[in-house]
Amino acid sequence: MTAPTPSEKALVPFVSVENMMRLVHQVGIERLLVELTDVIEEDFRRWPLFDKTPRVASHSRDGVIELMPTSDGEIYAFKYVNGHPKNMGQGLQTVTAFGLLAEVSTGYPVLLTEMTLLTALRTAATSAMVARKLAPSGSTTMAMIGNGAQAEFQALAMKSVLGVSRLRLFDIDRRASEKTKRNLDGFCFEIEICNSAQSAIEGAQIITTCTADKQFATILTDNMVGSGVHINAIGGDCPGKTELHPDILRRSKTFVEYPPQTWIEGEIQQMEKDYPVTEIWQVLSGQAEGRTSSTQITLFDSVGFAIEDFSALRYVKNRIRGTNLFQEIDLIADPDEPRDLFGMLERAKS
Amino acid sequence: MTAPTPSEKALVPFVSVENMMRLVHQVGIERLLVELTDVIEEDFRRWPLFDKTPRVASHSRDGVIELMPTSDGEIYAFKYVNGHPKNMGQGLQTVTAFGLLAEVSTGYPVLLTEMTLLTALRTAATSAMVARKLAPSGSTTMAMIGNGAQAEFQALAMKSVLGVSRLRLFDIDRRASEKTKRNLDGFCFEIEICNSAQSAIEGAQIITTCTADKQFATILTDNMVGSGVHINAIGGDCPGKTELHPDILRRSKTFVEYPPQTWIEGEIQQMEKDYPVTEIWQVLSGQAEGRTSSTQITLFDSVGFAIEDFSALRYVKNRIRGTNLFQEIDLIADPDEPRDLFGMLERAKS
After folding, report:
1. Do residue B150 and residue B161 come from a single domain?
2. Model ipTM?
3. Could you tell me how far CA A138 lies from the centroid of its own chain?
4. Owning domain of residue B342
5. Which of B197, B287, B269, B209 is nearest to B243 (CA)?
6. Taking a contact as any Cβ pair under 8 Å apart, which residues of chain B between 44 and 103 contact chain A?
7. Residue A167 — φ and ψ, nearest 5°?
8. DSSP-assigned letter for residue A323
9. Which PANTHER family does the UniProt entry name for this protein (chains A, B) (predicted)?
10. Residue B106 contacts by C-beta under 8 Å, 6 or more apart in sequence?
């Protein structure tokens, strides 16, 4: 039984996990993080163009499945992503993801790709994009509190984009810090594993918090944080999950991706509704001020937004052009005559 | 460069357009439509269990891209579907679709499949499920007004599920009717191509309207429709797109899938808000009356709902088990140690 060969439009390039890993190694992870940071910044600078539909979440006892769509009027993107804290106990990923790009003018998909790795990359690139703008100039030392799946990506993005060279690691599970240190061997960091969060942040210009507990936690208290630092808070990213004591927020100038989403998911869910936040796209496009003094604490309350996925998908689509880093999958039915779907089906019989 | 072999959970079965066509032919289209009708009815009977999130639509000048998610608490499904009326002019499909099933407990995808063909099949099966309940008993003749991509699927579902054997076709483009007649050669229908909608409905117990114009149109006027018939109105399915004169609705008992969606997209968008509608799941589960007299006009104001896609995806997942009608695609990153995503990436280098 042979079917008619599908036309070009019916075949959608698919980037598997294996091919995504090949892409990272072919480009080089540090170069890729720099390029991705620039692509995300490009899209943040044209922020008002984007359709900012809220994500659609389906919550269950064990976790959440979300669809995150956006569009710039020419390209449509969405990401499927789950969050299941208990998965780790079964040897599964807490967060897995895949994504799709489509042409707005026809609705035809033009890219399907794994996004578990790509999300880790874009999250780190977004942190680096913001830190490049807000961190004290000449930052070289980063404290990383929480050394899970994001840790190495964060470290490499801060290195390649900002020149961070010293890491001070802390995790309540020391093996996580050891894993991170081991994985970063060969990337020319000076790395110290610390016994407490307090100790980790000593001498750091950038503090990255990235823990996984799904609850209100206090990873940092106010007395621990000195003036002039940049806090990159990426672990507090859903309702009921925060990492910072509210007093730190009271002392900081806080930057967010998309306020309606961050008020629900970010650190600022703990604050009064009149707490001031600055949209990071406005800083990047010159419409708002970033850091205004060297003693100011800047805080990026990051939750992850659909436009970052859009940028990452757009980057992958351009980067795989002319390579063999994708397969074509026959996803779209494509009859010779559009009204004759049944005829296509019948002709496939013979 | 070789990557570690992904584990079972990381591989997602993918049903291509070609494999979907093979599945239809292996099962036999009429048998498949009967089985699918029963699976959809099973899910409609347990309707209150489902999460009925509204679809998320991204509108543009040329069309719409929608994500339609639902879940029964154990399985999560969503469909990506576009609607671009101008596509036909470029030789493209107006509507293309694909869908995904995932486990609610882990968020891991378990099926990815084309859904352009599958949507045509589930739409026809849903019409047949409703007609089996509401059409006059012993219905043998169906008028079909609008003979586009859905026509043959509707005809075969009504034949296999209800025993319809006579078709009276009308389309403003006679070639569409000729295409439908030709495609249905060999399926043992008695088919007549008619010169008007009026003529097509003569002697029909079931009237299916399925035209594609994206505007308020009047395919049927009140004086044309006799008592006792069942109207299967599937073309009026988005804001501003209707097919029936309001006076027909005033004389009919109207059945809908999900009222909040049908009020926006269906024929009833023309009616006053106190116009009474009956939810079809309540009829199927014995909680509401269907047809109450042989002279009553019953009207199924169909717009298509996510639960029908859920049922269709569930059916395909079961039906491909043990066959070679799918490929496995490496969609989900699966490190040996969940927190060690970066380690997986690095090990793939060697």
Report:
1. yes
2. 0.90
3. 24
4. 8-117+307-347
5. B209
6. 51, 53, 56, 58, 60, 62-65, 67, 69, 71, 73, 76, 78, 80, 82-84, 87-88, 90-94, 96, 98, 100, 102
7. -120, 135
8. S
9. KETIMINE REDUCTASE MU-CRYSTALLIN
10. A62, A63, A82, A84, A87, A90, A92, B9
